[in-house]
Amino acid sequence: MKLWMAHTKAELLALLRTPGFLIPTMLFPSMFFLMFAAPNLPSTAAANFATGSFMTFAVFTVTFFQFGVGTANERENPWSSFVRTLPASPLYRNAAKVTTAAVLALLAALVLVLASAASTPLDLPLARWPRIFLALAAGGVMMGMLGTALAYLVTPKAALPLANLIYLPLAFIGGMWMPPELLPKIVQEISPYLPSRQWMELVWPAVGDGSWDVGHWLAVAGFTVAFAALAGWAQRRDEAVR
Fold this sequence. Notes:
By secondary structure, this protein is an all-alpha fold.
């Protein structure tokens, strides 16, 4: 427990000392929402739907870049290399990263909700929030594993541009920025096969108080296991080389 807390404290302090990364990562989804979504949400149902979508986008932004770009940059950090030589299990380091990402994702989602509440007729009853948090957390873990795999598969300098090439299409085609029926026809055909769309199929029923389809949970679980296996293999390969 002490090692986990120590690593978590170090991770949070490192982020607080790099506001140029922390602040834009947390505020970008809310700014995007206020500029492109909020002006076109006349009803409560539309506001709820869009807020759920952009909350997912906020969690995606934090988890994917925190695990992807952040972890990739650490590979060039001498301190990170030193920590790897210590006898403590890497489990503590990874648990600290998960905790840090969860805290930041929660804050980013909270900022998004506040922005929506101030600019749209948002009305999400308290009873819906446990399901919303569960859906957001499930997808956040999935995208965190994808980011980790990316971090160890490419060079640190290539991590940021490649992350953007993955992040933006997944968000757009997955339906985080607009309802699936408004996407171009060819995109609508691709969308259901992406992990981001399967994630949205968990968030939308939670926001709208609808029922979940177990198939979407199985799809998210399958993607999570696949990304985790890829991340584990890539991490072991990188540590063996180093």
